[in-house]
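Put briefly, the fold is written as integer tokens. The lines below illustrate.
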Amino acid sequence: MAHDPILPSNPTPEERAAFVMFRLEQFIREGKTIDEGMSLKRWQTMAQQEIAATILDAQRAMHQDEPITRRMLFIFGASITTIGFWGAAVSLHNVGYVVGASVCMAAGLALLAVAGEWKIRGFWRSKEAVKRRSNLAKVETLNKRVKKLLTDLEGEAESLDKALKKVRKTASAR
């Protein structure tokens, strides 16, 4: 892959797998040079850690959403039941219109508040995911720059060594 796969705030298993494959490909490409390679044992360790981190992240996201989902379902059920009960009481003329309308409006507002919270959480998660991807891209760019600088410095060191050997050879010939 040429670029970092973009994960949504709640990625599917296929998207998580694509991300893990991307990371494993990075491990292989970054650890393999002409004079050194990545040992199988090291690659296996890195792959195992990456897969474990991805699975842990998926489990954490699932457990994090569970109480929120339960609360939303509870408030949704309570609001619908309240609206139904008070609507029936008003329609049977057992309760005044103002009282019934007030209770139904309060239940509806509670329902809207929970739905709004759900949307805000989704927006916040996607914003955090974008920030994480941006930070990861910055780190990877910095890693590439450091590797390029290291390669440049090694090349410069080799040319200085050659120049030093040449100077020593000419000095010893005198």
